[in-house]
Structures are given as C-alpha cells and as structure tokens.
Amino acid sequence: MLDVSSAIVRMLGTRVYIDTNIFIYVLNNTPVWAAPSLALLEACATRQIEGITGDVTLAELLVKPLQANDAAAVAAVRDLLLHDGAISVVSHDRAAFELAAHHRARHGLKMVDALQLATAQGAGASWLVSNDRQFPKLTDIECINLAG
Fold it and tell me: Half-sphere exposure (CA, 13 Å, Cβ side) for 107?
C-alpha cells in the first residue's frame, strides 16, 4: 500500500488531480482505503497540495445517491465538490477529449479514465492519484495509486 504521508510530502505545493475512486472511498468509508483517501483530501483542505478533479467525478459520484433517492447523500457529494472549497472542479474541454482519444488508442484506457488523465494533464497537474493500475507512465504527470 502507498505510504500516503510520504506521497503528500512529495506532492507539497503541487497541483494534484484526484480520481473518482478516492472520493468514493471517503464517502462510503471503505475499509482499508478510506483513511489514506481522507488524508489526501485533508492535505487539499489545508492547502498543502492543490486538489483538483473533473466534472465527470461529480457525475460519477451522484449516480448511486440519485438511484437511491438519497437527498442527503446528493447534498454531501455536492458539498464536497462544489461548496467545500478544498477541491477545484475543472471542466473537460475539447482538447481534453482529443487527448483522451489519444490515450484510449495508445494505452487502451477506458474512456472515463482517459478523460480524467487528459483533463489532469490539461489542467497542469503534476500528479494523478487513483486506485486504478492501468494509467500509463508519462513524462509530464506521475500517476500513483493507493495500492502502491
């Protein structure tokens, strides 16, 4: 498992793109993954790192609460991403979609993962934190996952 404290030290002062699964672990209090994910989000809240994510994360996080007609969970997701201020939500522009197509073609990523990676790159993130192992090694962004 990734030593999140050491990773945060390496990320200090940088822009970090946070994949959807990190938020899911916190919102669902997922055993094993919630604590390191929360530590990452707390580093964003205290401005040790600049946390960003994409609009698609909002859409992904709202699905289950909307299916369950859980207004409190919908509000919690919206608060976390739109009102809390710890994480900036960036839009996916046309350049991100074109780069995502390149990543799908070259690295075989799923569309949503390719879009997350392309958006992170377009937003100038130095890091992408996920728990997905399929992200490629690239020179302009370091993709790390919680599993190590």
Answer: 19
The total of structural domains in the chain comes to: 1
Residue 58, Cβ density class (10 Å: 0-12 exposed, 13-18 middle, ≥19 buried): middle
Q: Which residues contact 34 (CB under 8 A, 6 or more apart)?
A: 25, 26, 28
Tokens (6 digits) for 106: 């070259």
The CATH number that applies at residue 19 is 3.40.50.1010
**Which of these, 80, 13, 10, 9, lies nearest to 47 by C-alpha position?**
13
Model confidence pLDDT, tens digit, residues 47-72: 999 999 999 999 999 999 999 999 99
Locate 140 and state its tokens.
Answer: 């302009």
Domain that holds residue 128: 4-145
Q: Which residue intervals of 14-110 are DSSP H helices? A: 20-27, 34-45, 55-67, 71-78, 94-107
